[in-house]
Amino acid sequence: MFRPKVPTMPQPTGLTTPPAVVEPTAVTPHAPAPASTVATPARNRPAVQLTPGTVLALVGGGTAVVLVVGAVLVSMLLAVALTAASVAVCALTVRSVIARR
After folding, report:
1. How far is CA 88 from CA 17, 30, 81, in A?
2. Handedness of CA 40, 43, 49, 51 (dihedral sign)
3. Which of 1, 26, 51, 101 is the most buried (most CB within 10 A)?
4. What angle do CA 51, 53, 54 make, to 5 degrees?
5. How far apart are CA 78 and CA 84, in angstroms?
6. Residue 71: is its pLDDT beyond 90?
7. Mind giving me the DSSP string for 23-61?
8. DSSP 3-state assignment of 20?
9. Angle at 22 (CA atoms; ends 21, 23), nearest 5 degrees
């Protein structure tokens, strides 16, 4: 009743086909296409252009990120402080009750 039943591998039935024969093919290298010799003139402007509006948006976005992250960190610190205070009050209460007995 509690013995595991090990499945047996079924034997193949019917006709089996032999594997297909793969014949090697010859690789003929071809000459590479000639490279283009037309040179484009280099530009002297930077890849990223900062306009006054873009700078204002970046400063505003950075300020928003700093404020949000700061608020989250202050909230976490407050939660830890409240938890520590409540655990301390509980410890003092338990110690007081045990001392009276």
Report:
1. 79, 82, 11
2. negative
3. 51
4. 65
5. 10
6. yes
7. --------PPPPPP-PPPPPP-S-SSPPPHHHHHHHHHH
8. coil
9. 115
Give me 32's structure tokens.
């590479």
What is the greatest pairwise CA distance in the chain? 99
Tokens of 22: 């793969």
In the chain, the amino acid numbered 11 is Q
Tell me which residue has tokens 């409240």: 82
Amino acid at 69: V
- What digits encode the pLDDT tens for the residues 6-63? 778 777 677 667 677 778 777 777 777 666 666 666 667 677 788 989 999 999 999 9
Token code pair at residue 36:
């283009």
Tokens of 61: 């976005």
pLDDT at 70 over 90: yes
Given the structure tokens 């040179």, which residue do they identify? Answer: 39
